[in-house]
Amino acid sequence: MALPFPYPPLVLRGAVFDPPLFCAPMAGITHSAFRRLLADFGGYGALFTEMLSAKMILHEDLASSPWLKRRPQEGKVIFQLLVVDTDRLPAILDRLAARAPDGLDLNGACPAPTVQQQGGGADLFEDADRLRDIVRVLRRHFAGPLTVKIRLGRQTPRWRERLGERLRLLADEGVDALTLHPRFAEDKLKRSARHGLYAELAAETCLPIIANGDIISPAYVRDRPAPFAAAAGLMIGRMAAAQPWIFAQWHQPGLVVQHAEVWRRLYDYIVEDFAAPQALARVKIFTAYFARNFLFGHTLFKRVQSAPDLVAARERADVFFTTQPALCRHPSLDGI
What share of the chain is helix, strand, coil (3-state, %, to 5)? Predict the structure, then answer.
């Protein structure tokens, strides 16, 4: 029997996210083809794009770009932006308006060195003046829901004080909600997410907090009611890459899927949206996660990872699936 979702609908500037259950922005994964697959299962309140370089938007073909295109069946789509300064930002937002985003999200969380070296992600979080300037321009030029994704910042002696300052800054500048991945930038995906901070931080800010990090199943949240009680919604990342039906499982706990059919369907969607070299790369990225569903998933991973082209990748996956591979009871994403 399906249990009620633990949070009421989240309403931001008139936009209703029901349920307030979101697929996280993930590099190389939450492109248009993957969002199309998620839409086949449903169960979410909104999907996020990959983190999009804001200045790239000025040059992409809005209709055909696999990063910017969206299909009606996806439902609400929030576009996450990598912004490092305000240069040309109004023009970028004017062009993006043609995609009718249901929300914009500013990335203030990404710990990747290449992103931080550009001044984005976790580096932007550290620079209060630059963060304020960017949020002001976003708020001035976009009337819809504006959210910011953050971590805890860098682990310094005054990290907690700095985090409080950022919460006040974001609220004062008109941000509507924030997504909190409660790890330090240095943690990347190591150490456990500090979910116990949600209640403390929710009491400190008027902003709704969407919980993110290590949320691997409905049971994970159900078994930990206290840490998640103060959240306004949930965001699932890597486990959605491994199990794209995870959002539907909140409402259909007995959902049965055909794993081979799911892999082949996404393969077809990717081939439709991407040129061959880009398509092969994204098939390999997805397979790294999807292979964790199987007891001997390393076989699928290695065969597809070493495939020289798309045809070989499809053939090798088909051979693996014909063996009717045994499933893991609880897939682990350690090491990805």
Answer: 45, 15, 40
